[in-house]
Amino acid sequence: MACHADLVSQQLRGAQHAAPGELKQPESERHRQIDFLLADLVSDFIPGVSVYIDTPSGRYAASAGYADLQTRAPMTSQTRIPNGSAGKKLIGLLVAILDDKQLLRLDESILPWVPEDMAGRIQHLEVMTLRQLLNHSAGIVEYNDVGELDFIRAQLAQQANRKGNKFALRFVLDQPPYFEPGEGFAYSNSGYVLAGIVIENKLKQPLGQLLHEHVLEPLGLTETFVKGYDVAADDVASGYFFNMEEPDFVLPYRERYNTKQLIVNTALADAPVASSAQDMAKLLKAIVAKEKPVNERIHRNMVGDAYLQTAWWLPRFLDGALFYGLGVMVEKHEGGVLYHHGGNEFGYITQSVYLANQDVAIGLIANCGAQDECDEPVIALTETLNTLFSADSSD
């Protein structure tokens, strides 16, 4: 199968955004290089890719390949996909904002807002806090690691039905913790799932409503929608997984599988939204650069040194020391600080990075994921983009 790899690119200077459908040829050698990299990335395993880059001298968007292989709809700069774990920074920011508004507290016990039928089946809730859930220091077991692919099997069995946080949290019940809260670091999606339940129970509002009111609308993230809450969150590119290696795996062997229905119908707080590459870049930059409504206190709670956890076994791009805040990875390297957090699930992969010293924000999305033939080239492209922009402070 030969994939369409036509390149659609836009160069956006200052506040001058290209109108829908208006194409401008890339004006710099760097942009021509990025165009080539995107076109070269498209393959049987990577149907489509879109990137958005915000630099001090301008903004640039480009895309290649297909958003849907059946209809041949092209990937564009407006294409949205589920963000996977890259959406964790939205939950971290929401909680930091709610803490700043004194609507909840990051460091109070979550026990009063855990459903009674679950409270007795998760250890250490009386001393567990929202901050620990969000910076992966709570010790709560990862729901994906329970049993023999138990979660994905349950997902597939009900893929046409909407599934929320309680669906995933049930796999955590009665499981021994990794450690006592505050005594270690272990990346766990379950912490965000539990945090989503706690937030809704304490404030008596849907998570989607809270995200819109306190984060999406204040930041002007008009291309980001909450799964299971916004109808527009279902209007995303198809996602593709091609199982080439495991005949006994739960997804079909040697058959391209469209994961769109599976993923959009699983609405969990660890992967809460679908958005464009542009909104992903805008969100991370807003957090780090303290754009309203992010103030100094919110910024400090999210990525301040006093609250960072030393992160183990998580991806890094510039061979720096890696730390984890509230949904944001902080990589301190020779040339400065890189902030990032990607997402990876069946059929979708996302990357968002912010080079603080260069004031460069990058969002990247592709409609494949959870297999080496997709993940490795996409991560390599992200590393290349980091290198391109980390050498200087200007475009």
Structure, explained:
The chain is α+β, with helices and mostly antiparallel strands. The protein has a domain at 87-219: 3-Layer(aba) Sandwich (Beta-lactamase), CATH 3.40.710. It contains 12 helices and 16 strands. The protein has helices spanning 29-41, 88-100, 116-119, 130-134, 150-157, 165-169, 189-203, 207-219, 260-264, 277-289, 296-303, 372-390; strands spanning 7-12, 48-55, 58-68, 73-74, 81-82, 224-226, 240-242, 256-258, 273-275, 309-310, 321-324, 329-333, 336-340, 343-345, 348-355, 360-366. The strands form 3 sheets. Strands 1, 2, 3, 4, 10, 11, 12, 13, 14, 15 and 16 form an 11-stranded antiparallel sheet that branches. Strands 5-9-6 form a 3-stranded antiparallel sheet. Strand 14 (343-345) and strand 15 (348-355) form a beta hairpin. The longest helix has 19 residues, at 372-390. The radius of gyration is 20 Å and the shape is globular. Mean pLDDT is 92; it is low at 1-5 and 12-27.
Strand content: 15-25%
Oligomer: single chain
Shape: globular
Question: What is the string of SSEs from the N terminus onward?
Answer: EHEEEEHHHHHHHEEEHEHHEEEEEEEH
Which CATH class of the domain at 87-219?
Alpha Beta
Q: What's the Cα radius of gyration?
A: 20 Å
Named at the architecture level, the CATH assignment of the domain at 87-219 is 3-Layer(aba) Sandwich
CATH topology of the domain at 87-219: Beta-lactamase
How many distinct beta strands? Answer: 16
User: Major beta sheet, specifics?
Assistant: 11 strands, antiparallel
Regions with little confidence, pLDDT below 50 for 5+ residues:
1-5, 12-27
Fraction of residues in helices? 25-40%
Q: For the terminal residues, how far apart are their CA atoms?
A: 37 Å
Average per-residue pLDDT, rounded, comes to 92
